[in-house]
Amino acid sequence: MNSKKGKKSAWFYLKQLIRFWYLPSLTHCTASKFSNMTLRISCFLLPILAACTPHTDKNIAEYFKNPEPGMQTGGVKMIEIETPKGKFKVWTKRVGNNPRIKLLLLHGGPACTHEYFECMDSYLPAEGIEYYYYDQLGSFYSDQPKDSSLWTTERFVEEVEQVRKALGLNKDNFYLLGHSWGGILAAEYALKYQENLKGLIISNMMMSIPEYNEYANNVLAKQLPPAVLDTIKSIEAAGDYANPKYMELLMPYHYASHILRMPIADWPDPVNRGLNHVNPDIYVLMQGPSEFGASGRLLHWDRKADMHKISVPTLSIAGTHDTMDPAHMEWIAKTVQKGTFLLCPNGSHMSMWDDQANYMKGLVGFLKTVDGGR
């Protein structure tokens, strides 16, 4: 039990009692007196000790309390959104209950799924953080319309805003974490709707696709064996992305070094499910055929000139071995008005997996620091 400012805690008085009464009395104490004195002090101490014991059961009950009336769905909520091409539904799932910290997770891709975020389950509940999984329109658990005009950054931003409203998130509790493509989406959302945010996390994403491609070509490509790089480049030049040799080379030589730093055979199930559920129509249209640079609709995306406009507390997360330039992610933290930089020294693009200790400690620390107003 912590005392309020300006008041003495129960532990303070307990220490004074032991110091000035109980310990001196022992020096002049017979066996019978000792027994009686121990009984009396025990009766005094038990209420104090009980008051100092954390109300763990109560805290757990509050965290898992379901604010939704009616039939319970395990936190799952299908949200109807409006688009220029009609109404569709997107999948969300709430975990926990915290009126001050509500974290919405934006997955990458585009058109991957929330599944690779499932490692959050091992960390965030223990910290009392409420968080939301969310599959963007076109992703596996949400509606998947075929109209390609829907796949623009601007429309996705409006989708996020509709999801925010449906979930009841506001400037006093709304934290937005975007990873990879989700980082682009989170930055775009903040640039238009930051008055609704309490905090922003841009995870493993540069704010310029042209600079991302330069880093891929000038830094990452040079780390590949020359013969491997030549084969990859020849396949790309021919546009023969369906050639099985393409991914056969990229997976062990690029993905296992810069996407998730472990042997492909050991990749965790949530990661594999997320990748297996990617919607290729959207992914290729916007990103291109692989993570070895970008070549789709996002090819010329660049928001570097606008990052100084972001005034909400912002955490930029990088992995030393990322597909994204860590120096660029540090630049983000220095350019926004209230930036913090987190480097995961053992991490790659999915630092929440291959450098979990540093990633989760930094993320939780940021959320609690902003919540505390520090």
Question: How does this model look, in words?
Answer:
There is one protein chain. This protein has an 8-stranded mixed beta sheet with strand order 1-2-4-3-5-6-7-8, with helices on both faces. Mean pLDDT is about 90; it is low at about 1-10, about 20-25, about 30-35 and about 40-55. It folds into 2 domains: about 10-55; about 75-374, Alpha/Beta hydrolase fold, catalytic domain (Rossmann fold). The chain is built from 13 helices and 8 strands. The chain has about 375 residues and is an alpha/beta fold.
List keywords for this structure.
single chain; 374 residues; alpha/beta; Rossmann fold; 2 domains
What's this model, at a glance?
This protein is an alpha/beta fold and 374 residues long.
List the helices and strands and how they pair.
Elements: H1 10-26, H2 31-52, H3 56-63, E1 76-83, E2 86-95, E3 102-106, E4 130-135, H4 153-167, E5 174-179, H5 181-193, E6 199-203, H6 209-220, H7 226-238, H8 244-259, H9 269-276, H10 280-286, E7 314-319, H11 326-335, E8 339-344, H12 351-354, H13 356-371
Parallel strand pairs: 3-4, 3-5, 5-6, 6-7, 7-8
Antiparallel strand pairs: 1-2, 2-4
Helix pairs in contact: 1-2, 4-5, 7-8
Radius of gyration, rounded? 26 Å
Instruction: Report the end-to-end length measured between terminal Cα atoms.
Output: 22 Å
Helix content: 40-55%
Name the structural class: alpha/beta
The low-confidence runs, each spanning 5 or more residues with pLDDT under 50, are: 1-11, 20-27, 30-35, 41-55
CATH superfamily of the largest domain: Alpha/Beta hydrolase fold, catalytic domain
Q: What is the fold-level CATH name, i.e. the topology of the largest domain?
A: Rossmann fold
| Overall pLDDT score | 89
The appropriate CATH architecture of the largest domain is 3-Layer(aba) Sandwich
Q: What fraction of residues sit in β-strands?
A: 5-15%
The global form is globular
For the largest beta-sheet, the strand count, sense and barrel status come to:
8 strands, mixed
Number of strands: 8
Our count of domains comes out at 2
SSE order, one letter for each helix or strand: HHHEEEEHEHEHHHHHEHEHH
Put simply, the count of helices is: 13
Q: Please list the strands of the largest sheet in the order they lie side by side.
A: 1-2-4-3-5-6-7-8
